[in-house]
Design brief:
2 domains; MetI-like fold; mainly alpha; 327 residues; 73% helix
């Protein structure tokens, strides 16, 4: 009996692929599976191709605009940096040598680096402090609007405020004379002394503090509340919650704020020019003043060489910041 069952029963389960020799069903199933697989692959390729076409259609206008209005003009500036301004004769590196030997260029570089080194930590740190304080308040929309108000003020209004505050007959001199800090009749010229540098720093921080604080607030509110609440349950203080939980999650916000603040530090020329003119006090003389004077005097070869140097340095600094933030 057991022998008969063993002869009738198969030695193992036969797959559908092995039964193809005796039955054509498995072959048809295999062909159907292959056909479905090929169709799905074609559909995926078609959908990816359509997505690529859509992204290309969206990016093409922006790419053309950047190419026409940024890349091509910058390449022309690079070309001009190696030729003379009038005759367009080949000058080699003479333009770069003249730029680095120029005393005004060295003064402008020194003041610009000093201004950036002072303003960036001050702006970023003060914005983070105010954002951490305001994030605990429930009604902060009105306060945020107050801090963003300087960005909405026209340049002419800012210049008027500067003159009302820092001129010899300005409010600041009156405020210092009234309590006896300054002797009666003594008027300080804040825009004509070394104090002009700190006036420029104050103006930059005052104008850019609002958006910096708003960016910090956006990063703080993006941190999940459960993380900070869990830290509080474990016994962490508010200071420990901020520095150990919230601040490590603000890495992307810190990168964005640093880059924007760094680039905006090169945009303080307008107010300084309207207040102090083309040749302000030497502590207030920045790269923008130098470029403006070279442009007025049609020293385009020097301006082109200096622009290439400054643009290259800015690009390398941004790449360095990006690499540091990825570590």
């Amino acid at each position: 009996m057991w022998k008969r069952l063993r002869r009738k029963s198969p030695k193992g389960r036969q797959s559908i692929w092995q039964s193809e020799k005796t039955d054509g069903t498995a072959g048809r199933i295999s062909d159907e599976i292959k056909r479905i697989f090929v169709l799905n692959r074609k559909e995926r390729r078609g959908s990816s191709g359509r997505k690529s076409a859509v992204w290309t259609a969206f990016l093409l206008p922006s790419f053309l605009g950047v190419t026409v209005f940024v890349l091509i003009p910058f390449l022309d500036v690079v070309r001009r940096s190696f030729v003379t301004a009038v005759t367009q004769e080949w000058a080699g590196i003479n333009n770069y040598r003249n730029v680095f030997e120029n005393q005004a260029f060295r003064l402008a570089i020194h003041n610009t680096v000093r201004f950036t080194a002072v303003c960036l930590p001050l702006l970023i740190g003060l914005g983070l402090f105010l954002a951490a304080f305001l994030s605990r308040l429930k009604q902060i929309q009105f306060i945020k609007s107050l801090y963003l108000f300087p960005l909405a003020m026209p340049a002419a209004t800012v210049v008027l405020i500067w003159k009302m505050l820092f001129s010899k007959q300005g409010f600041l001199n009156g405020a210092l004379i009234l309590p006896g800090v300054l002797p009666e009749g003594t008027l300080l010229d804040f825009m004509g002394t070394g104090a002009s540098f700190w006036v420029l720093v104050f103006s930059y921080v005052w104008k850019n503090l609002g958006y910096t604080m708003v960016l910090w607030l956006a990063g703080i509110f993006a941190v999940p509340y459960d993380m900070s609440e869990a830290a509080r349950v474990d016994g962490a203080s508010e200071r420990q919650v901020f520095w150990k939980v919230i601040f490590p999650n603000l890495k992307s916000s810190l990168y964005t704020i640093t880059v924007l603040s760094f680039l905006n530090s090169f945009k303080v020329f307008r107010e300084a020019y309207l207040v102090a003119g083309s040749y302000p006090h030497e502590d207030m003389y920045l790269l923008q003043h130098l470029f403006n004077n070279w442009f007025v005097n049609l020293e385009l070869d020097k301006m082109a060489a200096a622009a290439v140097c400054v643009g290259t340095v800015l690009f390398l600094i941004i790449l360095l910041l990006q690499k540091l933030w990825k570590v």
